[in-house]
UniProtKB/TrEMBL annotation:
One Pfam short name: FecR
InterPro entries found in the cross-reference section: FecR, FecR_C, Ferrdict_sens_TM
TM regions (residue ranges): 81-99
Domain FecR protein: 179-275
Protein name (database record): DUF4974 domain-containing protein
């Protein structure tokens, strides 16, 4: 059985899993083997997407990885493994050495755990809730907040559904949920729509929607994943997400919007259902596994087919980077760990990296992995600024 699982994980790494094999691997993971699977991912190492196709993994190194699986690391947050493995696209980054040429295999590298800077904290669940009267409540782990229609346990905030028979108001009351750098938060709106907010994001929404009227929220900035309560449950009322540059209309679907203030592009990725995007110049429909990229400056748009697992993994506790420039990766890390990055060698900014890493990892563990792959030469931490060399 052990050899069979190793075979499946290796095929998963090589992106050759069939649907049946992926299902088999998921069942093994969910059958009490999360920690063992994490042992493989903890030994991750990065490979360049442009490596010569003749490159192979040193068999002796695979044996070392295999032996490590019986000494699992501490469990990280449980993931939606099926979504990632079924996509057959996660790159397992084994923390060992890959052969760059068959003729000259390098020696195996023993990963060295970096000295952790305790001043740099891992991101956590936290947000500020701003009520209609302007008052603010800090939401964070260990603190609860409750009113007649709002409930928070410090990890999420939920709005109580309004009885439509008692809903006589024609005026909407708005709240704001603001997630700082180093934070994330989950909210369930009054209509049952679920929203995951990423670091450095702000959402404006009504405390209750009007019966039969369009349900509208505004992503003022940042990134959010929406699992929308279908219109069939709300007398046909459509759901819209507004932003400065576009409007997304849905009937009942799952999608992700990334619209940070310091980025030129807005990314809208559809997971399930169908959406209509309107940027005031043109309208575009999206189908599942499509991503519309809007240039905020030129208003030009392009629709790409994407692997949605990479685009939405952040909400399940995972950093997924698929041939992303280091400059973009450092932006993601800066928001989660609340630090700033400076590239001392500008050429490194465009270096592309492939990796799947846990958001529960210390920042220096991630930087050490990137450094050990020779994507960067070194890094230096000066208070809350990371110098990339």
């Amino acid at each position: 059985m052990k050899k069979r699982i190793e075979h499946l994980i290796f095929k998963h790494f090589d992106e050759h899993l069939t649907d049946e094999e992926a299902k088999e691997l998921v069942e093994w993971i969910e059958n009490g083997n999360h920690e063992k699977f994490n042992a493989y991912t903890d030994l991750n190492f990065s490979i360049e997407s442009t490596k010569n196709k003749k490159n192979q993994i040193n068999p002796s190194l695979w044996k070392n990885i295999s032996s490590t699986i019986n000494n699992p690391k501490p469990k990280i947050r449980k993931l939606h493994y099926w979504r990632y493995i079924a996509a057959a696209s996660i790159v397992l980054l084994f923390a060992t050495t890959f052969l760059t040429e068959k003729e000259s295999p390098p020696a195996a590298v023993t990963p060295v755990k970096p000295k952790i800077n305790k001043d740099i904290l891992i991101g956590t669940d936290k947000a500020t809730l701003t009520l209609e009267d302007g008052s603010s409540i800090v939401l964070e782990k260990g603190k609860s907040y409750t009113t007649h229609n709002i409930k928070s346990n410090g990890e999420k905030v939920t709005y109580k559904p309004v009885d439509t028979n008692q809903q006589n108001s024609t005026k909407l009351s708005y709240n704001y949920l603001t997630v700082p750098r180093g934070g994330q938060f989950f909210i369930e709106l009054e209509d049952g729509t679920s929203v995951w907010l990423n670091s450095e994001s702000q959402l404006k929404y009504p405390t209750a929607f009007l019966t039969g009227k369009p349900r509208e929220v505004e992503l003022i900035y940042g990134e959010a994943y929406f699992d929308v309560s279908p219109s069939t449950k709300h007398q046909g009322a459509t759901f819209k997400v507004l932003s400065n540059e576009q409007e997304v209309e849905v009937l009942g679907t799952e999608f992700n919007i990334k619209a940070y203030q310091d980025e030129t592009f807005i990314y809208t990725t559809l997971v399930e259902g169908k959406v209509l995007l309107d940027n005031k110049i043109q309208k575009e429909y999206l189908n599942p596994n499509q991503q519309l990229v809007l240039n905020k400056e030129t208003k030009n748009t392009v629709i790409n087919k994407v692997d949605v697992s990479y685009e939405i993994s952040w909400k399940d506790g995972i950093f997924s980077f698929k041939s992303k420039p280091l400059k973009d990766i450092m932006k993601v890390l800066s928001r989660w760990y609340d630090v700033d990055f400076t590239f001392l060698n500008p050429k490194l900014e465009t270096t592309k990296y492939i990796g799947v890493l846990s958001k529960d990892q210390e920042l220096e563990e991630i930087l050490s992995i990137i450094k050990n792959t020779n994507f960067i030469n070194a890094y230096e931490i000066k208070e809350n600024t990371i110098l990339i060399k």
